[in-house]
Amino acid sequence: MQNEPLAFRMRPRNLDEVVGQQHIIGKETTLYKMIQNGHVPSMLLYGEPGIGKTSIAHAIAGNTKLPFFSLNATHAGKKDIEQIVGEARLVGKVILFLDEIHRFNKLQQDTLLPHVENGSIVLIGATTENPFHDVNPAIRSRCGEILQLKRHTIEDIKQLIRNALTDQERGLGKIEIDISDEQIEKIAIAANGDARKSLTLLESIYFASDEVDGKIIIKDHIIEHLSKRIGVYGDKGGSHFYNLLSALQKSVRGSDTNAALYYLAHLLENGDLIAVCRRLLVMAYEDIGLANPDVGAHVYAATESAKVLGLPEARIPLANAIIEMCLSSKSNSAYSALDSAIAMIHEGKTGDIPSHLRDAHYEGAKVLGHVGYKYPHDTPIGTFGGWVDQQYLPDNLINVEFYKPVIAGDEKRMAAIYDRLKNFKSPK
User: Fold this and answer.
1) Residue 359: helix, strand or coil by DSSP?
2) Which pLDDT does position 367 carry in this prediction?
3) Which of 165, 242, 292, 342 is most buried by its number of CB atoms within 10 A?
4) The predicted structure's pLDDT at residue 235
5) What are the structural domains, with CATH classification, of the chain?
6) β-bridge pairing 43-46 and 145-148
């Protein structure tokens, strides 16, 4: 058993040994009470790697004493599932833990789901992807619980580390290890909420440390060396990656410079520079917009520079762009106005283009009545340029307003012009 990784050995054997995730499996939750009373519902566990999906499944199995089987949907075939179905027929009920359930194919599904439906197989599925996006609806409909796990707190991780250091049967409790509370906290911080990584890091530190007079001496420099990059997680194109992009944009929109830089750092460590650049350009026009029109050009220059430079130097222009966007005046009025117009079109609220606005660059246009257009440039108005009072919207949409100015930054000046031009128009 000692040849198995420490993280594997320290998996909880029952629900009371689970550290963290108390909002899901704590003693006061309905799920805990159901399991304690002998009822285990099929469920989906959703969350990042290392935050306890597999551990919770094993803990549930430990509480119920039902036969427990574990498969990975990426590798399992129809034959594997048929064997578990056969076991369920023999013993009456089994628990099947199916990791990466979002990769479940139709053949696997057709073999398994009837037995989940009749209750002979309790399905506990685990996924790092959003189950509402990536898990087959047929599976979701048969799982009574869809549970989102949270990243472990530093206190959770410290408790896991202390459990491993004191457990004499499965952990390192039989070994005298000189490690301080401060060092335990450093390991917990480096693990970044990932229980598996914390115990893997602890085990690596143990094996990299020297023994002096029968005692393992943990040194800070070993912790620091082995901790590098351990906090980075996020597969390109996965749910967590898109959550990071979302958090980045919402932090910029909320003008929180430090949060925005944090999420940018996370995204760049994942390495998908193109996706980050695309999102920054969208943000420049969606969230800054008319309040500071120069930002669009600045962000475009920064993202193009980043693509030419490549990582790690690309972080430099992108950091400038993020801070400028965070601290800029903001407006979403332009794209909101366009979305309002699109919505009106989808609702069927359209009308005929006024005759004087229709194409008149051909012989016969006058016969069709395409006349009467007044050329605004022929009528200067102050320093604004040319303007003339004439109808542009269809007859049935006159006086409709899609654009609602935001009085912020440069848009304050534009809003004043917009209101002044409305006052120049003759009532319709």
Assistant:
1) coil
2) 85
3) 292
4) 55
5) 21-148 (3.40.50.300), 154-227 (1.10.8.60), 239-326 (1.20.272.10), 333-424 (1.10.3710.10)
6) parallel
